[in-house]
Backbone:
């Protein structure tokens, strides 16, 4: 964030309190505040609903400020957390493995494409890039993954299809192209191979880009539910977002699961507040990490904006 | 060529490490992008489970005929294109507006906090957005109806009324993309040469003249590129958004069904492999044509910013 905000020049005559400055500041503060409220209010509504008593939701509906405060939904979620924890486990596994592997392959591919002495870099770049222009569509991929690769109901199906993204390869490549050749020249003279140069010189020099791209990949894995929708039917392999999706649409299933595990004895499940509490628990880590990781995303966006 | 000292095999040998480093990515795109492209043959076959991809009988253009004669083709194509056009216009106008205000507004902390808040929706999954929509639009307990009832108005049955959805989806898209685009435009504004502002100030231009005569004209190249590239993707629907907002609610399909949701449903619920492959191929062709046109336009406008 600082990279974009810090550069704003001091040309604005801040000391001048002319009418135009005043009007613009007024319009600016009011509009931006309204936009900020527009962006954040949905989150506040969900938090509030998750902390409301079920009876007051049924009676009065969702409200911005809970009329009766209750943590019943959360305590129910945490009392028998097996399903939720398993979904967390799947998501964390997929995110960690997918990000590590994806980041390694992205940077290795990008490094080769950034090498000016590699004659076929143009052809290989086109080979990768063409996949963003044209695709076989959903049906062939679906049949391939299910009938030929036999990946249905495996953890791999949550990792593999998202492993590489051409856009990230391009961004990484343009970052690595800016590393001066002189740095790798001496290593080459000392007899270091291409892979060693990549591993021991290029990777440490690419840390800022690795952090940014890594977080983009991690966010995509964390938020993925699409591959689970297509390829996962076993409940023990459901990642967090897909588990939430299932539960939002199927509270009856949840009621049965909770009754079976003894969490509730009758059918008095605080359905509405529970849905909202689950939403918060599934989003939680992102909301907490967000302020700290935001700047890396801003960096990534501005690289993307410059490179088109 | 083989006898040539600088021939093909010589180069393979010379670059063997680099080629080895590219292999995982090459295989990845071969399996997950190029093999499915070959699967397009399914669009011309009468798929059956005993025959599979290879031995199902050919049926010419029957799948396409079925897709177009049902009227679905026109409906989903129109919806996809119109939604994307609306998203492009509304999102870009809002983002440029917010970007300019964010740049002009003086307070550093205010700017930081606003940027953080506007960017937040970008980080959550579409499943969570679906949960938020449920909180807002549920007929019995939704926040919107609580508000309407509080004002003495009739509650609205959003999930049963197709005509509300174009507005809702445009607002949701604006909400989710606002921060992302604002930061991109803010970065573009920040890179405008500050001397121009200084000169304008000396000449006595007020802030509004400065915005209209310097900021906006300088932004136009960026806007044109981003919009052209977005137009290139005009036939690609955002599956995550439509599926989580609308789901399988058939009452809303007339105004919310896009090509991607249609293909998904034809594949997974009605199992019409051939027809959904045909619809997917049709979308790929449209997408390919529009992105080539868009790239051609970008090339004409500014060669350096073209995709290829």
Residues:
């Amino acid at each position: 964030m600082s990279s974009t905000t810090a550069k704003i020049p001091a040309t604005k005559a801040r000391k001048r309190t002319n009418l135009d400055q005043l009007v613009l500041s007024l319009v600016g503060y009011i509009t931006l505040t309204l936009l900020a409220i527009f962006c954040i209010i949905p989150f506040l509504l969900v938090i509030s609903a998750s902390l409301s008593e079920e009876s007051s939701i049924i009676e009065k509906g969702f409200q911005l400020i809970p009329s009766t405060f209750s943590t019943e939904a959360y305590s129910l979620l945490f009392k028998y957390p097996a399903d939720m924890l398993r979904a967390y486990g799947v998501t964390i596994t997929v995110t960690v493995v997918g990000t590590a592997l994806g980041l390694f392959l992205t940077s290795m591919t990008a490094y080769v494409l950034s090498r000016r002495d590699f004659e076929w870099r143009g052809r290989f770049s086109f080979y990768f890039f063409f996949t963003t222009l044209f695709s076989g569509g959903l049906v062939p991929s679906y049949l391939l993954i299910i009938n030929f690769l036999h990946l249905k109901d495996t953890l791999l199906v949550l990792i593999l299809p998202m492993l590489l993204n051409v856009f990230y390869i391009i961004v990484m490549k343009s970052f690595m192209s800016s590393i001066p050749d002189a740095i790798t020249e001496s290593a080459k003279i000392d007899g270091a191979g291409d892979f060693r140069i990549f591993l021991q010189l290029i990777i440490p020099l690419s840390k800022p880009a690795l952090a940014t791209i890594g977080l983009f990949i991690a966010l995509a894995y964390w938020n993925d539910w699409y591959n689970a929708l297509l390829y996962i039917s076993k409940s023990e392999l459901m990642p967090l977002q897909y588990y939430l999706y299932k539960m939002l649409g199927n509270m009856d299933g949840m009621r049965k699961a909770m009754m079976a595990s003894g969490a509730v004895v009758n059918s008095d499940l605080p359905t509405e507040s529970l849905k909202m509490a689950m939403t918060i628990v599934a989003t939680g880590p992102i909301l907490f990490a967000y302020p700290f990781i935001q700047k890396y995303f801003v960096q990534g966006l501005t690289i993307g904006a410059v490179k088109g | 060529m083989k006898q040539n000292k600088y021939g093909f095999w010589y180069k393979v040998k010379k670059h063997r490490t680099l080629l080895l480093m590219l292999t995982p990515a090459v295989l990845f795109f071969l399996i997950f992008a190029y093999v499915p492209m070959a699967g397009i043959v399914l669009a011309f076959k009468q798929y059956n489970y005993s025959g599979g991809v290879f031995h199902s009988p050919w049926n010419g253009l029957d799948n396409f005929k079925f897709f177009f004669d049902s009227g679905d083709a026109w409906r989903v194509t129109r919806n996809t294109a119109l939604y994307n056009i609306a998203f492009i216009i509304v999102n870009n106008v809002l983002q440029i507006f917010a970007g300019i205000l964010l740049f002009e507004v003086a307070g550093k902390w205010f700017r930081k906090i606003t940027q953080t808040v506007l960017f937040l929706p970008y980080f959550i999954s579409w499943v969570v957005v679906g949960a938020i929509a449920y909180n807002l639009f549920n007929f019995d307990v939704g926040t919107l109806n609580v508000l309407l009832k509080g004002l003495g108005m009739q509650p609205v049955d959003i999930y049963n009324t197709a005509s509300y959805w174009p507005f809702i989806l445009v607002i949701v898209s604006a909400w989710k993309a606002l921060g992302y685009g604002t930061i991109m435009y803010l970065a573009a504004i920040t890179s405008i040469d500050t001397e121009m502002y200084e000169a304008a100030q000396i000449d006595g231009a007020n802030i509004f003249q400065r915005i209209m005569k310097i900021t906006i004209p300088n932004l136009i190249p960026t806007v044109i590129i981003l919009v052209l590239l977005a137009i290139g993707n005009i036939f690609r629907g955002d599956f995550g958004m439509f599926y989580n907002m609308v789901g399988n609610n058939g009452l809303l399909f007339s105004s919310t069904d896009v090509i991607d949701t249609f293909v998904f449903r034809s594949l997974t619920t009605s199992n019409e492999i051939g027809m959904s492959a045909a619809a997917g191929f049709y979308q790929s062709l449209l997408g390919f044509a529009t992105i080539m046109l868009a790239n051609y336009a970008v090339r004409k406008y500014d060669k350096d910013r073209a995709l290829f």
